[in-house]
Amino acid sequence: MRNSVKTVSGAFIPALAAFVGSTVPAMAHPGHGDGGFVSGLVHPLTGVDHLAAMVAVGLWAATRPARQAWMAPAAFMAALAAGAGAGVTFGAVPGVESMVAVSVLVLGALLVLATRLSSGVALALIAGAGVLHGMAHGAEATGSLPAYFAGFLGASAMLHAGGWQAGRTIFARGQGRVVAGLALGITGLALLAS
């Protein structure tokens, strides 16, 4: 088991960094297609900002005791839905893309500081990131909004779960949390700069 954790963490972190580095220029929020369920389901997988944030929330959840792991994804998802509703209602907020990039940086910092920061503060920051991501995507939504948001929220939940599972595997021996947080921080900075 120890060798498999080392192998997974030794392979996952560089692969994540290579993936993020190769996709950052093709960043945030490509088209939404027809705005239906499939578009919503695919969208979180095609924007580096959203992909990084969803995985980061799952990774942070993996730093919590098992009975508390659900709190971060639940806070983000509720805030994501509320932010999306605000985005649909009020339209685009000036500078929201920059705020979304900063949220990826903040989520990386939360991962680095996971053992030093209170859960309440971290959950508030995670919810704030969720609102920003929701506002950005809600303002851009077209077509069948209920179907699009059902797909979008479903894909987000799957990415949270994937991040949580990866975190449980990678962090099992106390390895990789800081490296993953730094990789997310660098991703946030790259998104902000582009």
From TrEMBL:
Q: Please give one Pfam family short name.
A: HupE_UreJ
Q: Which InterPro entries is this protein grouped with?
A: HupE_UreJ
Out of the domains of life, which is the source? Answer: Bacteria
Signal sequence segment: 1-28
Q: What are the record keywords, sorted?
A: Membrane, Signal, Transmembrane, Transmembrane helix
User: Which residue ranges run through the membrane?
Assistant: 74-92, 145-164, 176-193
Name the UniProt record assigns to this protein: Putative urease/membrane protein
- Organism of derivation: Novosphingobium nitrogenifigens DSM 19370
